[in-house]
Amino acid sequence: MPVANPTLFTVHAFALRLEEAGIDVSNAERVDVDDTTRKPRYEGAEPLRAYVSPTLAEIVEHTNKESDNLYAEQIFRTMGGGTVEGAADRIKAFVERAGADGDDLYLADGSGLSRKDMVTPDALAAILRQMRDHPAGRVFRESLPEGGGAGSTLRNRLRGVPVQAKTGSLLAVRCLAGYVDGPNGTPYVFVLMANNYTTSGGRIAGAQDDIVRALATGRRIPVDEE
Hints:
- The chain has helices spanning 6-20, 56-66, 69-79, 84-97, 121-132, 137-143, 201-217, and strands spanning 163-170, 173-181, 187-195.
- It folds into three domains: 7-51, no CATH class; 55-141, no CATH class; 144-218, no CATH class.
- The protein has 226 residues and is of the alpha+beta class.
- Strand 2 and strand 3 (187-195) form a beta hairpin.
């Protein structure tokens, strides 16, 4: 569940650990530093612990390969200055620079878990095309799961196919988008979205995989008579 006040949450967690260690903190003040009238002085203070964040490239790779919704949400809100509206405005501006209509998007969160999120295949394809020649394009592409890649969302799919793509799924929603190399090395951008289907999600994913294989091999997809 979301933590409304991370600072105060940390204070209470720290106090709990001190009590478990036999240290009496019953008279200690447990408030957010922003709410106390006694402001701390940090001159000459020694840090208890320093933590250096992974690089953004590493964070994005973890997000995409493991489909980590928490990471995705934090990246989204960070780029928006902490607000959904700010992040949505920046993404819409990027989509428009990529040649698609930003008004076709409605972003309620960064993880994609909200049913209110609306993204068109055209907008997503424009982003993928734009990132192909973007200064961060190589890092972005390497962050995407490879077919059969261990530890990724494609670990059991598209093994041996020259594809790098991101999955996305909700109840009655299955999506796959990314890059695949054709039979002569021709690079393709593809976006496959299925909504409100009445068959199984596995069958939809299988059909999407067949389409990607067809792009990679240049062969027709066998017709499923069932």
